[in-house]
Each structure stands twice: as C-alpha cells, then as structure tokens.
Write a structure and sequence with these properties.
Elements lengths: L10 H4 L7 H5 L14 H4 L10 H59 L1 H26 L13
Subcellular location: Cell membrane; Golgi apparatus membrane; Membrane, Caveola
Family: Belongs to the caveolin family.
InterPro entries: Caveolin, Caveolin_CS
C-alpha cells in the first residue's frame, strides 16, 4: 500500500525573498572575511604585449582555469566542509564554556580578593614613581628648540 502526499505550493511561496536560506545562498561572506581570496584568471596569468600566445590558447586556458578552480574547490569543500565545521563548532563550544565557567569566575575571584594589591600598587606609584616622572617632566619642560633655515644666517 502506498500513500501519496499532496503538497500545495502557492506562487507567492516560490517568489518569496524572505526565505531563511536566502542570506546563506546569495551572500556567503557578509562580513568580508575572505576578501583577499577573490582571485581571477588575470590575477594569476598575464601576458605582456610583447609576448602573446594564440588566442585560442588564451581562451582555453582561461576556461580551464575557471572550471578547475570552481570544481576542485567544490570537491574539496564537499570532503572537508562538514568535518571542519564540526571540529570548529566543538572547539568554539569548549572555548566558550571554559571562558564562561572557568576563566571569568577565576579572574573575578582574583579581582575581589586582590583589592589590597591594587591599593599597595597605587601607593607605590604615587609615592615612588609619580614624583620621579613629575620632576623629569619639569626638567625637560624648559627645553626649547629653535629651527633656523640656512637662508636666515
């Protein structure tokens, strides 16, 4: 026994521009992360005017470059995209978890318990370091430089 499922698709659904997948399909690099990878045939192969191959060689070279670049990228991405995405997702999840549940609480704990270090360090700066640099600044503040042209002599 077979069961037939009828799907009603309205023409509005087919022409809708508010699809969840449309941003993924049309603009796959919205933040322009890989703007340096926009390589064209002319960026790689360029013949100077003094040395030129046959026109058919140039056309076929251009076609083979574009086709091989496109299909080899598609094949490699077919093999690697899902595993690399999975590994990156796991890595970012682990790093986020460590940062949220381990690193930030430890830093906050140190900041809370080390308030006396901030007080001592501020006192050292105000007692020892600040007067030294204030005196150096006052000593060097009176230095003036006059620039003269050779024509003025």
């Amino acid at each position: 026994m077979t069961t037939a499922i009828k799907v009603n698709v309205q023409s509005e659904d087919l022409n809708s521009t508010h699809s969840d997948a449309s941003p993924l399909v049309h603009d796959r690099d919205p933040k322009r992360v890989n703007k340096s990878l926009k390589v064209t045939f002319e960026d790689v192969i360029a013949e100077p005017p003094s040395v030129r191959s046959f026109d058919k060689v140039w056309v076929w070279s251009h076609a083979l470059f574009e086709v091989s670049r496109l299909w080899i990228y598609r094949f490699i991405s077919l093999l690697l995209a899902v595993p690399v995405s999975l590994a990156a997702g796991i890595l970012f999840a682990v790093l986020s978890c460590l940062h949220i549940w381990l690193i930030t609480p430890c830093v906050q704990l140190l900041l809370i318990n080390m308030h006396w270090v901030q007080t001592v360090w501020g006192s050292i700066l105000n007692i020892l370091i600040s007067p030294l640099f204030i005196s150096i600044g006052k000593s060097c503040g009176r230095i003036t430089i006059h620039l003269a042209n050779d024509e003025d002599k």
